Amino acid sequence: MYVYDQFDHAFVQDRINEFSDQVKRRLAGEISEDQFKPLRLMNGVYLQLHAYMLRIAVPYGVLSSAKMRKLAYIARNYDRDFGHFTTRQNLQFNWIKLAEVPEILKHLAEVEMHCLQTSGNCIRNTTTDQFAGAAKDEHDDPRPWGEVIRQWSSNHPEFNFLPRKFKIAITGAEKDRAAIRLHDIGLHLTPQGFDVYVGGGMGRTPALAHCIRKGLPGDKLLSYLEACLRVYNRYGRRDNSYKARIKILVAALGPDEYTRQVEEEWETFDKAAIDVPAAEVARIKSYFPDPAYVDAPFDRVAFERAKTADAAFARWVKNNTHPHKRDDHVSVTISLKPVGLPPGDASSAQMDLMADVADEFGYGELRVSHEQNIILPHVAKRDLYALYAKLDTVNLSTANAGKITDMITCPGLDYCSLANARSIPLSQEISKRFEDANLTDKIGDLQIKISGCINACGHHHVGHIGILGVDKQGVEFYQILLGGRADEKAALGQITGKGLSAEAVPAAIERVVQLYLTLRTSDAERFIDTLERVGRNTFAEALHEPA
Ligand code: HEM
Ligand code: SF4
Questions:
Q1: Percent of the chain whose pLDDT exceeds 90
Q2: Which of 23, 93, 106, 388 is the most exposed place for a label (fewest CB within 10 A)?
Q3: How do strand 185-190 and strand 168-171 relate by DSSP bridges?
């Protein structure tokens, strides 16, 4: 994990001091909310439906146990005892008092965390694969490159006032677990270098990013990103915030013309002044060593015996572990989606326990996944049962990773001032309907994603089943999309028919799922495969059948 040097500490401290004074002036009434707004947004403070909200950066989703423990401390002492993990691998606190924000920032700085650039029209947290550095199918570790980008983009004078916020994602594996084609820039780290995708995103105008360069060498990464952003900063629309994203510019120019302009720009400037020297890349890489793996002789017989004796454990192992580059280890997904509770929330007690088990079984490392779960990237197989038993004590042992109840859900009308409809209660209703673990397992991998408005925080465009909250003359409705996916075969879902009422949605989804179970050729044919084989229309009809 990257460790701050003197520069980083001083930089964060200066920003805290500056913002503390601004908060004091706001509380004394010396500046208005309008004047304060741009200042607070530079520090991750939003004003939501009921209270101030604080968004904390978790760079490329990587947390240490000490950081997780600090988040628990903040939840307990400054919020209502819980935090909300987001799809952008950050954490949001929803019930923060403005007067306490400076203190919270000081606590965060103690564990090398901050809230800078978690909002505003700048380059936001770069996201990565949650299994980075651990996954069996990985070519190379994306985390050091996430850190290279973080250092380059933090307070970048040219890119602090972009037309809109800007999001970069990197994956270094065969399988895309970072949704790179749905970001402003997506980077695929391959053995030949970076494949660069530009112009993806969700929101009002969803788009898949285009590949504009293949095999870019790492030592040219920053200058190339700089060229991509310069063209956007210069020509991106600023007259209409909905049209200000790079996806609109790439679509307007066409990917070929955009690429030509980027390449032309790239030739004009002194790359050496921007690109990171090899020694610096090596220094940053040295902060991401493998943990000191214990040689963990694995007693397969005892493990199989434990699984036979405890079916719930067996299910959890099957659903919530992921192949590790070492055969005696796995990566573990800790589900934050227990049936009937708000997806992505963790209480302070749960956060503390996750920090403890990370220390005991996971070399002190944790990750936030873009599916709003927590990952222990390195766990020796022999420790799985002990880990499972501890997670179970605080309701963190739900065995549903990747399954129908593992939904991504935005805050919606419960918190968000932009929402048209509720998202969280709907996801709770759906998860209750699929509560039966055997049914969930039978259905297999199926992603439902819910957003409470067109901004698409809940990724509804790329859900196998996407749900979008809309408001029709003061009544909440939900449009259903089918066929989206966020992986290496990324596709946008299509809206089907008329919107449904909240009460009608769970039954409609059940009909679609039942239809899938009758149509699939075998258990191995996932929902999305069947849907792509038979076509969306068949499923759309089932959705809108009278109940
Ligand atoms: C309640 C606080 C929140 C507010 C006010 C908010 C606001 C917004 C807005 C205005 C957009 C649209 C940006 C655009 O024009 O593309 C957006 C997009 C997005 N938000 Fe949120 N959001 C909130 C919470 C969340 C949460 C909790 C998550 C994660 C679960 C999230 C993840 C995202 C993502 C992934 C996008 C995608 C847009 C893109 O394609 O870049 N947001 N949000
Ligand atoms: S999708 Fe809309 S309702 Fe949901 S959090 Fe984003 S802005 Fe709010």
A1: 91
A2: 106
A3: parallel
